[in-house]
Design goal:
By secondary structure, the protein is an alpha+beta fold.
């Protein structure tokens, strides 16, 4: 009887250890999947230099021309034959059920998934011809799930430190977000710098 009672505790320990090993193997699986993934394409056309694109995009006109993309080579496309034009200043909502391609649509704009056919143009410039880091510095995607980041409001608005406080204050006021902090500009400046 005493041995039978010990068996149940050993079984519990075995199940706990097996669960722990399985959860730790997820990290190994991710490492192997990263080893197998192809590096991002960084080829850039000589037609577009950083100097010629400093003001790009100025209008925000987006065109999808017979665009298709997939997450892996030789797999079925997650986006297929999309042709649409979004005019400057126009607001657009992309809706659909789970798995319809809403997130893939945003990832295509950042070239996280690469084109299999067609092209995307922003202000009449093919984004596949623009340096990938430069493209991602010019296009922002706001995720639908809310997240709070560590650091000050300033660090979250401008992580690279490219803009001065006056510009950031203008953006906060233009977005009608400033009343959530305080009525005075001095208090907002303190929040920007100190992250209060």
């Amino acid at each position: 009887m005493s041995y039978l009672l010990q068996v149940s505790s050993y079984l519990t320990s075995t199940v706990l250890l097996q669960t722990q090993v399985e959860s730790e193997m997820v990290s190994v699986e991710r490492i192997f999947s990263l080893c197998d993934s192809m590096p991002e394409s960084t080829t850039v056309s000589n037609d577009f230099s950083h100097k010629s694109l400093q003001e790009w995009p100025s209008l925000g006109k987006i065109s999808f021309n017979n665009y298709s993309a997939s997450y892996k080579p030789n797999s079925s496309p997650s986006l297929m034959d999309i042709t649409l034009e979004i005019h400057e200043g126009e607001k657009l909502a992309v809706v659909g059920r789970t798995g319809a391609g809403k997130s893939s649509f945003a990832l295509a704009m950042l070239r996280i998934i690469e084109t299999t056919r067609g092209k995307i143009e922003v202000d009449n410039i093919d984004i596949s011809k623009v340096d990938i880091d430069f493209l991602r510095s010019k296009i922002t995607v706001i995720p639908q799930d809310c997240q709070a980041f560590s650091g000050s409001v300033r660090d979250n608005l401008d992580p690279d430190g490219n803009y001065n406080d006056a510009k950031l204050l203008h953006v906060i006021e233009a977005s009608c977000f400033s009343h959530g902090f305080a009525d005075s500009v001095e208090a907002l400046c303190w929040i920007l710098v100190d992250g209060g």
